[in-house]
Design a protein that fits this description.
By secondary structure, the chain is an alpha+beta fold. The protein has one domain: Sufe protein. Chain: A (Alpha-Beta Complex), CATH 3.90.1010. Helix content is 44%, strand content 18%. The protein has a 3-stranded antiparallel β-sheet, covered by helices on one side. Strand 1 and strand 2 form a beta hairpin. The longest helix has 17 residues. The C terminus is likely disordered. The structure holds zinc ion. Zinc ion binds next to helix 2.
């Protein structure tokens, strides 16, 4: 990873850990899920308000390491106002990025703010920390989706 991206990664982690965005509960959330990463002890709750296929609001609460918190914070700041299919695409991009599928020099323009998380590739145990918020958000999105029918 190039030096510029490395520095940006550290900045983003520090900044979002110190002042996490959307760090609150949403009382009237339409969707909610809990996430836990036993490897590190990160715990977080993700809250969503989804109306007409659009994420109207999203937030998180919880306790964990700097990377899990920063990742949740960046995620919530990116998802607001996005359509469900856009959210799913971002989840896939993020997942491919942190698991190294996009290689060491991902297309930064396409990934936008997510690109800084390319840094976790170098620390395999941190991949779960960085993905926790995203997996929890996807659970929230799908478990309570009205379109899902249970037998
Ligand atoms: Zn962690």
């Amino acid at each position: 990873m190039d030096q510029e991206l490395k520095e940006l990664y550290q900045q983003v982690i520090l900044d979002h850990n110190k002042s996490p965005r959307n760090f609150r509960e949403i009382d009237n959330a339409t969707q909610h899920a809990e996430g836990y990463n036993p490897l590190c002890g990160d715990r977080l709750d993700v809250y969503l308000i989804v109306e007409e296929g659009i994420v109207k609001d999203v937030s998180f609460k919880g306790d964990g390491c700097a990377i899990s918190k920063a990742s949740a914070s960046v995620m919530t700041s990116l998802l607001k106002g996005k359509k469900i299919d856009e959210v799913e695409k971002m989840f896939e991009s993020f997942h491919d990025l942190v698991t190294g599928k996009l290689g060491e020099s991902p297309d930064l323009d396409e990934l936008g703010k997510l690109a800084v998380f390319a840094g976790v590739q170098e620390f395999p145990v941190r991949v779960k920390c960085a993905s926790l918020a995203w997996h929890t958000m996807m659970n929230a999105l799908h478990n309570n989706d009205e379109k899902v029918t249970t037998e």
